[in-house]
Amino acid sequence: MHRFLARFSPSEMQVMRSEPTAYSPTLSVDVIRFIAGEAASLTFTCPRYDHPADCVKVIVQTLGSCTLKSRMSEVTIGPSEWTLHDFSRELEVNHTPDSEQVLLLFPADFFFRKQTLAAGADLVRMGGEPGVARLAGGFVRLLQRDWGALNFADQTDLIENAAQLIQLALSEQAAARQVETMQETLRERIKAYIARNLRDNQLSIEKIADALGCTKRYLHKVFQDDEQTINAYIWDLRLRHCVDELCDPNKGDVSITQIAFSWGFNNSAHFSRMFRERHGMSARLFRQMSLSPKSPPAGHSVLLGDTGSSGAP
Asked: What is the pTM of this model?
């Protein structure tokens, strides 16, 4: 029925205490309970193998925590979390004294039939949030618990189910990463458009959405992981440009209002209020301090918020 059946050895579930051999590849299916059982943390290295794609190892943490580090990535997993290792890179493993794991090892050709995992793929923490990934880790834990009571046919079917859940979890993660990458790309396009049109006092969410061919709602969603909303980002960027020109001796004959309006402000009161909230003083006093030879250099203490007295209005 499946290619891996001829190599499947339905042995009793193994319990390994402090034995790094549990992390070695296998050509059969193994479900191993690994217990650190040390007074101090347990650290060892799982070497790289010449044919890493022969086996895939799913590492499910049940107690304590474990940090796994390769040359390219590092991940720490706690209870109910898991990660995947394909033996293509040397792996440093560090367990807390109370660390316990379930290791599911099975032939990679069975796993790769539906899901291609690039050799040397980054270690990724899975199962930290509710969803398919957490269900997959829980399924592997249940599989380990009842492994010895299952007959060969049931073991075969349940390994198939475990692999499908793992494949689905990885597919969902890859799709989420693709969406995240697309959103990051759009976020940079938004910022570039804002930078090009910052002096336009009619710049708005509607205008940005029309220019980039998306909805206002999606623009807000793309910015939801940033510390600022799009509107806050626009006004903050305008204010920073105003600050730069207020500190520029070559702009000394340009009025504060002209500078503010040239960067998209269209209301003097709004500019003054925003400037005082950000820098703790009026724009006029800020300019005087910045251009005074006895004052701290512009962009130093004042711009970092160490403004002292609020100064004259």
From this structure: 0.53
